[in-house]
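Handout, section 3.2

Students often ask what a structure token actually looks like in practice. Rather than define it abstractly, here is a full record for Ester cyclase. The first block is the sequence as you would receive it.
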Amino acid sequence: MADNADLARRLHEAWNERNFDEMAEATAPDATITIVGSGDTFEGIEGSHAYNTMWADGFPDGKVTVDRVIASGDYVVVEFTGRGTHTGTLATSMGDIPATGRSMTLQLCDVMEFKNGKVQSQKTYFDTGSMMAQLGLTADQMASQQ
């Protein structure tokens, strides 16, 4: 059986492969994925699928590179870089963001908790201001879309 750090690395590789079924299977039925900046929460196996497809729909060519993994017991912290071109609609709690055609590079961090070899919780941290600036969007533009 893989240790938690290896499993966390594998799940980030699976995202690059768009293997969302593998990612969902590695998620506990009562797991939560939280985007810390917005408070958006995705629950369970279906939530895992929704969270991952949301990003892939917005950035069809998107890829992540794992920069650092730090593990302690049931917890794993993964620092990673996400790159992609915003050529699809990105669904957010503030409304859909239509494709801008702009490239983006984000530094992200997942804090993951594992129980019995499955993701129990994941908190994702990234700079939404940097994301919006790279996409050429302002707060006024987002408000006018609602």
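Discussion prompt for tutorial groups: The chain has one domain: 4-140. How would you have guessed this from the sequence alone?
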